[in-house]
Every structure is written in C-alpha cells, then in structure tokens.
Amino acid sequence: MKTAALLVGLLLAGSTGCAVAPNIRVVVEGSGTTDQLTYAFPGEEERTLRNPDMPFERMGARKGRVAIRLEGVHGELTCKIIINGRQVKTATSNTGAALTCDHSMAV
Fold first, then answer.
1. Which of 34, 46, 54, 83 is most deeply buried (CB count within 10 A of its CB)?
2. CATH at residue 72
3. Which pLDDT tens digit goes with each residue over 14-39?
4. Backbone CA torsion sign across 70, 75, 76, 77
5. Start-end of H helices in the chain
6. What is the pLDDT of residue 18?
7. Model-level pTM?
C-alpha cells in the first residue's frame, strides 16, 4: 500500500513541475485598422486575416516563438504579447507603417 501511495505522490509532484504550459495572449488594440494581420503560435500554422475587426485577441499555450505582424496600418494600433499575465513585448504604429511583435520562449 505504501508503494502505491508513494507512486501517486510522485506522479502528482511531477505533474505540477516546470512542464506547465504558458498562458500566451496576443492583443492588438487602438483606434486604427489594418489591411492584413498575420499571427503564429508555436506548433500551429501561421494565419493571415484580411481587414480584421479591432480589437483583436488570440490565445495559445506552447513554448516557442510567438509573432504577430500587421501590414497596411491606418491610424494608431498597438500590439502586445502577454505571457502568464506579464506583458513581454509591445509596439505601436501610426498610419502607413508596418507593425510587428514577436517573442521567443525556450522550449
């Protein structure tokens, strides 16, 4: 019986270790618009949206490179990458400029 309890304890301890997936959010907000928005989360295909609604927000949960790119910005937009509630990247663009936020996490 002690062996089973020890095994369960070890399994529970291992499941709460540093293998916990991060909570990743990409956010675009502001008073502007964009012609094209492309975003990518680790382990997923890159996705491109034409004339997306603002504000924009998507979530992911795998370590690696996170990126968001806006082209054809009209007005002011800000992109943010937020991991586990902490903002790790932000950038702001005015009319005409492209906008990129990316961040890499060790796998």
1. 34
2. 2.60.40
3. 444 456 889 999 999 999 999 999 99
4. negative
5. 2-15
6. 57
7. 0.78
Q: Are strands 77-83 and 24-30 parallel, antiparallel or unpaired?
A: antiparallel
Residue 1 domain flag: no
The whole-angstrom separation of Cα 66 and Cα 103 is 5
Domain count, the chain: 1
- 39's tokens: 């975003």
46 part of a folded domain: yes
**Residue ranges making up the domain that contains 72:** 21-104
Residue type, 87: Q
Q: Per the domain annotation, does 12 fall within a domain?
A: no
Length of the chain: 107
pLDDT tens, residue by residue, 83-105: 999 999 999 998 778 899 999 98
| Residue whose structure tokens are 């979530």 | 59
How many Å from the N-terminal Cα to the C-terminal Cα in the chain? 37
Judge contact between 36 and 49, C-beta under 8 A: yes
Q: Residue 39: how many CB atoms within 10 A of its CB?
A: 22
